[in-house]
Amino acid sequence: MSSLFIRQDNGMPKPKKLDMYISKKFLLTFFVAIILIIGIIIIFDISEKIDDFVAKQAPLKSIIVDYYFNFIPYYINMFSPLFVFISVIFFTSRMAANSEIVAMLSCGVSFHRLMVPYLITAAILAMMSLSLNLWVIPKANAKRQAFEATYTKKKARPGERNIHYQIAPGKFVYVESFSKWNNTAYRFTLETIEDNRLVSKLSAEQAVWDSTSNAWSLKKYVQREYPENTISDRVKTGDQIDTVIELTVTDFYLNHNTVKELPYGQLKQLIRTQHLRGDANVKYSLYEQHQRWAVPFSAFILTIIGVSLSSRKKRGGIGWNLAIGIALSFSYILFLKFSEMFVYTGTLPPFLALWLPNLIFTIVAAVLYKMAPK
Question: Which of 336, 326, 333, 319 is nearest to 85 (CA)?
């Protein structure tokens, strides 16, 4: 049995006190930092929204339970990369300043072995972040955004315009505009194409969603059929006709905000549906899917960078290490925001845009780790 472990009575190895010491410092520093920043954010948010809460008579229970209880997981996850990095920088720099790192290395503990408790703790935080992303935050976002829509002054989004859907293979829908006030699509067109040939075209001035029958009621419609090997078209007109197609009113409400409310299974199903339909909003869904995995993974990268930067004892104390740590962590978050812009403008595919910051910072982590004192 390696000297790095002590054996328990059942024969299984367990970490030394050194591992527990580092892990406890890591977790304690992280959660204290998160609690402090969340408290500050809540204070600023209350000061910003207190007039809305009073004007719209929001119940205190709803403010606390429906809004702030669902507000906290979102911001914990948002700031987790920043505070993983700062926590590692802070307590490792203090250990280095107190010559604890030097003592550990002098006692025969290799730098690679020293990284083990750091990476195990980073894995715990990454799993916490991933669990929040996949299951907790989507439900919390739905409740939080419903509260905001009721009790804050968020402006309603204008009706969508020039919407194209492929609702099934060979079936295409075009809508000039959609009103969310009355669930009505204006200048509605449904085209059926087979073997690169237009088979039929159904047009209507309005398509009104009927929630009782889960169908569209088409007003002032014109239906044209184009039989093969014939010159004349078959045309049918009327004032109203009901039709059931693979498109519901819910599809018109899906945007970059609503995808944040979907659990991971529903998000994957939505992406498959949007790919089939040729829906331009698929970029929001793909961004959300990759973001839920990419951000938790950053805990490992930022931990390695943090240890590599702060494990050397410096004459100026921990101030310089904290400054570098904050600068690098903010640059990572800024890079993620730029990746969002790259996805929405179509500059980069979502997978590449979301994982490119991790790839670049992985290279930075490898270089710094190689340069760290061994």
Answer: 326
